């Protein structure tokens, strides 16, 4: 009985820890883990209306801010292939001052990429991928930004599991485009019925 309990606990621990982290920022000039505000662990976020949804739990300022050009490719590598079904999106958040000092609060975020569903059969384009790349819009203003990636896992009935990371970047050679921005948290209304789905 004790032996079974030990193996049972080990299996539970392995299952609990078997999530993933978007731990590496990818640009055309470098791959950096130092630019990512590393989450404290791989556990998902359920409270999408809380401050944790912005850049994950207890993520401290990164030690590096990577310079990128508007129009360049940018993205994230995840520490293992995504095995939960659900959409992935990348946002940029324009820092009001020093990006290392900004916690991501305020209506300063806009989406630049999304990996959504496929049909016949139903799945998601993010499934079994470990790298997500997009292009920084040439029209955005130059300046300091947080680049944020999220996956909303749809595998549980009645709740979503969010996997989130942020990285610090400086955009150069930008334009003067007008951006439609949202707040994170706040981009998903609390008790939104669309948050109660599962695959």
From TrEMBL:
Gene3D superfamilies: 2.70.50.70. Residues 1-18 form the signal peptide. Keywords: Carbohydrate metabolism, Cellulose degradation, Disulfide bond, Hydrolase, Polysaccharide degradation, Secreted, Signal. One of its GO terms (molecular function) is cellulase activity. GO terms for biological process: cellulose catabolic process. Its EC number is 1.14.99.56. Coiled coil: none annotated. The keyword Hydrolase applies. Has a modular structure: an endo-beta-1,4-glucanase catalytic module at the N-terminus, a linker rich in serines and threonines, and a C-terminal carbohydrate-binding module (CBM). Lytic polysaccharide monooxygenase (LMPO) that depolymerizes crystalline and amorphous polysaccharides via the oxidation of scissile alpha- or beta-(1-4)-glycosidic bonds, yielding C1 and/or C4 oxidation products. Catalysis by LPMOs requires the reduction of the active-site copper from Cu(II) to Cu(I) by a reducing agent and H(2)O(2) or O(2) as a cosubstrate. Its main location: secreted. The keyword Hydrolase applies. It comes from Crucibulum laeve. This is AA9 family lytic polysaccharide monooxygenase. It is found in: Secreted. The lineage of its organism: Eukaryota, Fungi, Dikarya, Basidiomycota, Agaricomycotina. It catalyses: [(1->4)-beta-D-glucosyl]n+m + reduced acceptor + O2 = 4-dehydro-beta-D-glucosyl-[(1->4)-beta-D-glucosyl]n-1 + [(1->4)-beta-D-glucosyl]m + acceptor + H2O.
